[in-house]
Amino acid sequence: MAQQHDFFERVYEVVRQVPYGKVTTYGAIALYLGAARSARTVGYAMNAAHALIDVPAHRVVNRKGVLTGKHHFGGINTMQQLLESEGHTVIDDQIQDFDTALWNPNE
DNA sequence: TCTATGACTCCGG
DNA sequence: CCCGGAGCCATAG
Predict the structure, then answer these.
(1) Which nucleotide in the DNA or RNA is closest to residue A67, CA to C1'?
(2) Nucleotides of C under 7 A from a protein CB
(3) Residues with Cβ < 8 Å from A20, sequence gap 6 or more?
(4) pTM above 0.85?
(5) For A56 and B9, how far is CA from C1' in angstroms?
(6) Would A106 be classed as within a structural domain?
(7) Is residue A10 in some structural domain?
(8) Distance (Å, rounded) from C-alpha A18 to C-alpha A55?
(9) Which DSSP helix (H) or strand (E) runs through A32?
(10) I need a surface site. Which of A2, A43, A61, A64 has the fewest CB within 10 A?
């Protein structure tokens, strides 16, 4: 774990750049980091990121816009409430108008 | 060094 | 789009 630039840390840097009111996906982050097949590891990184206050992990969802990581937040509904407070609409763990809310790190 | 794990994604049906 | 199965890869123990 302790290299100068952890894979985790690179993930955090991308997540920090996600604009308010937007979301991105694990795959998009992995692709941006040049590790397109490491989406699962990105999710693993978010699990470790929940301690860092400046990493908006709730803005990262899977490719379908589903809040797969909601259970890793304090409460079952915490992630959804955070997203709704940023202007999103979440129904059954699915972000509505996901294609519109999606933010691409490459832009 | 090897095995297990997972907040994923792709593919075929 | 839904479902089941397989692949991938960094980290933890």
Answers:
(1) B7
(2) 1-2, 7-12
(3) A86
(4) yes
(5) 22
(6) no
(7) yes
(8) 9
(9) helix A26-32
(10) A2
The gap between A90 CA and B12 C1' (Å) is: 30
Residues 9-38 of A with CB under 7 A from strand B: 25-28
Q: In the block, which residue shows the tokens 């590790």?
A: A35
| A76 inside domain | yes
Q: What is the pLDDT of residues A43-91, one digit of tens each?
A: 999 999 988 999 999 999 999 999 999 999 988 999 999 999 999 999 9
Structural domain total, chain A: 1
Residue A15 one-letter amino acid? V
Q: What is the CATH number of the domain that holds A78?
A: 1.10.10.10
Cα–Cα distance between A40 and A24 in angstroms, integer? 14
Asked if residue A89 lies in contact with residue A21, where contact means CB atoms within 8 angstroms, the answer is no
Residues 6+ apart with CB under 8 A from A30: A36, A37, A38, A39, A41, A42
Q: Can you give the residue range of the structural domain that contains A59? A: 2-101
Q: Phi and psi (nearest 5°) for A51? A: -90, -20
